[in-house]
Specification:
about 200 residues; alpha/beta; Rossmann fold; five-stranded parallel sheet; 9 helices; 5 strands; about 50% helix
């Protein structure tokens, strides 16, 4: 095996380790319960690579029976905050838990809505400002990025993606979402042809 293929295997192993080591706690069950009882929609948010993961999670929730949208934290400060309703849950993705735009989004949303409004954060730092402001904070654990610099979001975003999928699947099971309901939302492509 060439050196580059060996390095490719190392990267895959680093990312799979990040997923394997995500700590699970009762907080996850609390988050699932809140999401399964949701009367509004899930507003997924994050910035940069975490924002891309938030966008994917919103798409998965929407296709599995839980209405969800993506809200860019910066755009929220220029009118899009109106997207959030009292009955919604704000699901924030932030590795550091310190991202200014995401912290400000939570502050603005809390000021605008009643105490019934809930915030769930997915982060590597449960002691961060964002986690402390949340009703439920879910940890991806201590993650070593797979890139040579140890800086580019790689293992951390893979762990966020996996934890977002865990939420989607557990909520889907909790609300009794069926294959028939799934197919109603997937008319096109390969999934639309499955019976």
């Amino acid at each position: 095996m060439s050196d580059k293929l060996k390095r490719a295997r190392e990267i895959l192993l680093a990312e799979s380790e990040a997923v394997k080591n995500i700590p699970l706690s009762e907080s996850l069950l609390t988050a699932v319960d809140l999401l399964a009882k949701l009367k509004g929609k899930v507003v997924c948010s994050g910035i940069g690579k975490a924002g891309i993961i938030a966008r994917k999670t919103a798409a998965t929730f929407s296709s599995t029976g839980t209405p969800a949208v993506y809200l860019h934290p910066g755009e929220a400060q220029h009118g899009d905050l109106g997207l959030i309703d009292n009955n919604d849950i704000l699901l924030i993705f932030s590795n550091s838990g310190k991202t200014r735009e995401s912290v400000e989004l939570v502050q603005l949303a809390r000021a605008l809505h009643s105490s019934a409004f809930k915030v769930i954060t997915i982060t590597a730092h449960l002691d961060s400002e964002l986690a402390q402001m949340s009703d439920v904070a879910l940890s991806i654990g201590k993650v070593e990025e797979a890139c040579t610099l140890g800086m580019a979001p790689t293992s951390s975003t893979t762990a966020m993606l996996a934890l977002g999928d865990v939420l989607c699947v557990l909520v889907m099971e909790e609300i009794g979402f069926t294959k028939e309901e799934f197919l109603k939302r997937h008319h096109g492509g390969y999934l639309g042809t499955k019976k």
